[in-house]
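Key idea: predict the complex, not the pieces.
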Amino acid sequence: MSQSCRLDSGGRIDRSKVLQFTFDGKSYTGFKGDTLASALLANGVKLLGRSFKYHRPRGLIAAGSEEPNALMQLENGAYTEPNTRATCIELYDGLVANSQNRWPSLGFDVGAINSSVARFLPAGFYYKTFMWPASMWMTYEKFIRKAAGLGVSPTEPDPDVYHSRYATCDVLVIGGGPAGLAAATAAAGSDARVMLIDEQSEFGGSTLGAAAVPEVASWVAASTAALAANNNVTLLPRTTVTGYFDYNYLTAVEKVTDHLGPGNGGTAPRQRFWKIRASRVVIAAGSIERPLVFADNDRPGIMLANAVSTYINRFGVLPDQNIVVFTNNDSAYRTAVDAARSGATVTMVDTRAEVSAELTRVLQQHKVKQFTGHAISSVQGTKGVKAVRIMPLSADGKSLQGQAWEINCGIVANSGGWTPSVHMFSQSGGKLQYDNSIEGFVPDPAKAKRINPGFSVGACNGSFATGDCIAEGAQAGRQAVEACGFVASDVAMPELTDALNDTGMGGIAALWLVPTVHPVGEGPAKHFHDFQNDVTAADIHLAAREGYLSVEHLKRYTTTGMATDQGKTSNLNALAIMAEIRGAQIPEVGTTTFRPPFTPLTFGAIGGQESKDLFLQERHTPMHQCHVQNNAVFEDVGDWKRPWYFPHSGEDMHAAVQRETLSVRTDVGMLDASTLGKIDIQGADAAEFLEMIYTNNWKKLAIGNCRYGLMLNEHGMIFDDGVTTRLGEHHYHMTTTSGGAARVLNWLEEWLQTEWPEKQVYCTSVTEQWAVVALNGPKARDLLATLSDIDLSKEAFPFMSMREGQVAGIPARVYRISFTGELAYEINVPARFGRQLWETLQEAGKPFNLCHYGTEAMHVLRAEKGFIIVGQDTDGTVTPADMDMDWIVSKTKPDFLGKRSFLRSDTARDDRQQLVGLLTTDPTVVLMEGAHIVQEIKDAPPMTTIGRVTSSYMSPNLERSFALGMLKNGLARKGETVQLSLMNGDAVEALVTDPVFIDKEGVRVRG
Amino acid sequence: MKAYSLFSLARNAMSYHRNWQRAWRSPDPKKHYDVVIIGGGGHGLATAYYLATQCGISNVAVLEKGWLGGGNTGRNTTIVRSNYLLDASAGMYEHAVKLWEGLSQELNYNVMFSQRGLLHLAHSVHDMQEIGRRGNAIHLNGIDSEFLTPAQVKEMLPIINLDCHYPVMGGLLQRRGGTARHDAVAWGYARGADAAGVDIIQNCEVTGMRIENNQVVGVDTSRGFIGAGKVGSVAAGHSSVIAEMAGFKLPIECYPLQALVSEPVKPIIDCVVMSNGIHVYVSQSDKGELVVGAGSDAYNSYSQRGSYDFIEHTVGPLCELFPLFSRLRMLRQWAGIVDVTVDRSPILSKTSVKNLFFNCGWGTGGFKATPGSGHAFAHSIAAGEMNAIAAPFSIDRFNTGALIDEGAAAAVAH
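Result:
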């Protein structure tokens, strides 16, 4: 029968909108306003999943995000999502859900064999076995891994999009129940910007699941409407605050279109991730009911009392006609009344011997049979509760004795009390205190975080009565907004006349572990506190027995609190049971850390829109489109896309690079050098600053001249290099490696800001302000002369100088510097002219056989000339002396960065690894970059290494292969032969040479 | 110590697990020990274990101010590998991997060391040069190392998006790398050390160092003075505090380093994947959670929580490399405090104070070294001289410049 458990009327569902859905392949209907959980319950479906370890049959426990059991594999294919709580899925038409962690079916699950051998699988059993034979662990593990896990990961890329955004506000209110609504109302009204966030689809918090109290309902509706009408208020339903970080930085995830079903969100994102900085925060996060820990308390049909009430009141679902309510506090009496009013036969089992006469009277009024001083001793039914047996509880709560009664029922609604949701307060840095009157941890106001602390109000502060919640909320909202310098608004109070619904939890008599006739762990039944991870009271006893006494050891050894619900319903029970074992007070046992996120957070949402094309956005030079047109193959250099080589049709990479390399030395080539880091340095102390940053002398550099410099880190190791040009008295243009641009600027700023704040120096990145074309080759001057008004003669424009003028009609700075050893000009024009310059040169270059060349040819050319690339030929362990570049290290300057480190004995050692050239005996062999030079070839490793290849190419100009490398004591070993051992076992012989292979005298570059 | 085995499990099941022994005792401190180890993390407990079982020194105490394994031992991403570039690092970490390979049996405690393979991805020419160099170096140190083509990477990891923003150009695989169960390492060593006579004293904070004639004679603690013939400090981020008690400074800075896990899912990724190019470190635990390492904050801090943007900058690349993970969810995030030296390699060293030894500065890479570090440190303390594996990690290197700068050399986090 369809929706057999649905009541004829009532609830916040829209009975006119019937929605179809399937669960485990079977079709059902529900109504708009249902959750998947309520719709299943309405159809009488109580078996919803299997537990992690024992594969015990499980059903719903809760109606909210604390649900540990009812985890669904939602949807199929690319939209599938594992471990989704049925209680948090708003029903939509066509929804497809499947149960998890069972095989072959939910009803018959082979994994349930674990349950029958559970005795051999206590907490931590895997630490004690699976060790023999040692080689078998990986095989055992395969089965363990298969058995573990819950749902199944998607196997296709996520088709959805996500957004993230930043927000700021004056007052952020977490939780839209009575306390939160009151706080937001008090804070709103003046110009304060207020945000109110709640994880449910509607505001009202716990009142939505309680029996309708007209005064409260209308107060909630009016408050929500007023807030919605206020432009300074942002209401975010379906949004969960997931983390509370330093300085009131909070994160929240908004489920924007999840409730519409996959693919139905239009252009809106699936979820939106909020990053909020709030001046003040009011935490009104409510509380979570915890179960009683009794024998076989995990059977489907055993639910939290407030969940049963919520299904009745909010969703119009009476899950069974026979309901037992089992409690140690007053709040569950509301559930008894809710169920009785809905027509169920209800029995109240209260562990307390003394219960107020008023409550007993109310039960009698609703014909609810009441047992006080009793407890459930056993549960019958495996895949669903059929009956419970109850017995009188001894006065000390440690045993059951006397007349047993058996009560038929399909639902046990139980309440072990309420645990304030202190997660956010705790994450903010606040410390907790234990409140004996409510048996729970509450925020210690004296130990809140120091700066702009959040205010905890309502149930998360241990105040459960509606009137108290509203009053506390209003007060906190007022304080918060006044602290921000605004005027608070008054909050109207509803008239509260329904005593039963406004007493909160009422009196509680803690009973952390309900005994059975057997000692804990020795009877046939299990007492669960952590349902999803299958952790029982017996496991806590075992952990204590074995010395895992610290709360963190308890957690890690038994895995309690580590499931996807992060212990929302289980943590306090576990602590309390451990406290009883240790004979300690609960606060002495302590709590584990409340870690973000509050509920699991979709990875896609965290990444926001920065995925796919927007992930680490590519940087393109102004000439990028020219390169695309010229058929460039690109290389990633940092975030830059640089042309790697420009293959002509039919050419492979090798052919293209050989052609480009040859062409530069015979005719002329042009390279897009725009990615080179460029830093504009100005100020009265600029010269002095460069003296400290670089190893060589800068003070005497003439205006208009360029100089190559090496930067060292504090260890005296080469850190970056480049050419810097003096543009004016106090003005320099520094270039850095492409990949090092940001690092160098940070480095300069760090020294300026932390060590030399008195220096008048200002550094500005101008990397993207200039487009740069490097013209290299013997015909470079002739080509440039056709386009420029600058006097390019050797005398007027010598090597290592800069001239300003026009190139192709564009104002340009032309630097006569060279990274190839050829006659070269680096033409810098404002970035917007880059493409024009490139295209003009391309056209004008035709008579000169101008070629484009990419980074690979550039690498070959510079290596032929023995020019190093920082980061390739050097790493962070190389000094200038190691590079045979002592000439660039001033012997006269009093100080520069890295100088002191040269005094260290290992740094000053003269047999360090040093830069050399390497020529293989066989000129056709191109060594692998990274291949190692060994002291002596052996049949097999280990071998002692004495050096390595850093750069290695085939050169069309040398007509052979060649390499650069680092070799121990290399400077003294030129002319010797060394051996390289390759990964495939081959040995290669190479001659150690000078690293400069072309134009040692520098005739070409000065030509 | 009663041995753990399938049979002991069965036997104890028959008596409802009433008769299991404590894994370690909770003794009161004695007046004097031959060696006092400060710090009950994995490295400290391993040191005590090897002192007692291999060096003939069982009159040892481990003093822990909180709970065993509560620092970085219980906060890391459980990765074990020895694919290091420099000889000194390779020596230490390979020593550790060899000990890992028999550790469950040695300790009679299943530390779940699982050699599921560790794959470093290269996303650029520079990355290829880096793994080329490192792969050769590892190979020549006699450690397993294989280069993979993109196709081989795909074969090993069918779910990877090779064509991600920085396309995967190759990989470096260490098949003997993998993961271990981090808590079990601390507990296994604690149990083994306890059985060999070591006193493990939790909730005992060292408050002062007694030094006479430049020789350590004991420590003041929250539980009174404890005399010691030798003292080994293995206090990670708090090493600087201990050093200050002894009157010297350490070249160490501390940063928060974050990690996170997803909800558990059925097996989806078998090996450990590390991508320095786009910053992804991920493996899947036996429980089914994806274990993801994030970066360390740029600012010094002792607070065990990091900046949130590091989580974003970890999850973004994860979803780029594995787009199917986008719908999975982060279950938990946390931070540890990493103690970092200037060359990001550890310090295992004698000090200017006689009989006072330090083992610290493991930075982001300490877990994998646990057995090797403890073993080398124990033998060095026993001998009074650093052994061959520990010697390169002497504190003197900061004076001589003989740094072991793995990060600078390889431009990789480790």
